[in-house]
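My current task is to audit a protein record that another person submitted. Alongside the sequence sits a line of tokens, each denoting a local backbone shape. Please read both lines and tell me whether the tokens look consistent with the sequence. Do not assume that whoever made the record got everything right. Thanks in advance; the entry in question is below.
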Amino acid sequence: MEIDLNFGDVYTAPNGYYRLHIEKARYCFPKNGSNVPQINLQADIVDSPVEAFEGRTIFATVSFSKKAKIFMTRYLEALTGEEWREDGMSIKVNPLDESDEEFDPEFEPGQFTNPLMDDVTIVALLEADEYEGRVNAKVRGWFPDDGSITLGEIGDDDEVPTFSEDTE
């Protein structure tokens, strides 16, 4: 007897809008020596219109780099329902050390948690993205989980929102 393991769709989901439950949000510096902090997210697809993708884990990074600020703005606005566009705005983080249960050894010491970002739901536009020969689901946009976005796959003819008007 042969069992088909079908690993082809392990790392991705069809392009579309999905509700994500953010399990972990870690503010840290990447191990590549960059001095630009980032927020590493681990989230699970929940309430998926496609049952096969329910519970699938999605990883995303929100960078504090100047080039990525609009993406961070959209992420924070989707989480809070408030505008994040003024100078001097800040978020509170709680430091972790290696003795904390939540400490993730995959990242540099100096990790922090953020109560605003842990254990919340958000809607994300996921798109297949090939990286090092493997197709993964990449977050292309963040939206509030307020019912304004219809969850599910999108086709080639569906209108996908862009944020170019926000980059002025």
User: Anything to note?
Assistant: Confidence is low (pLDDT under 50) at residues 161-168. The radius of gyration is 17 Å.
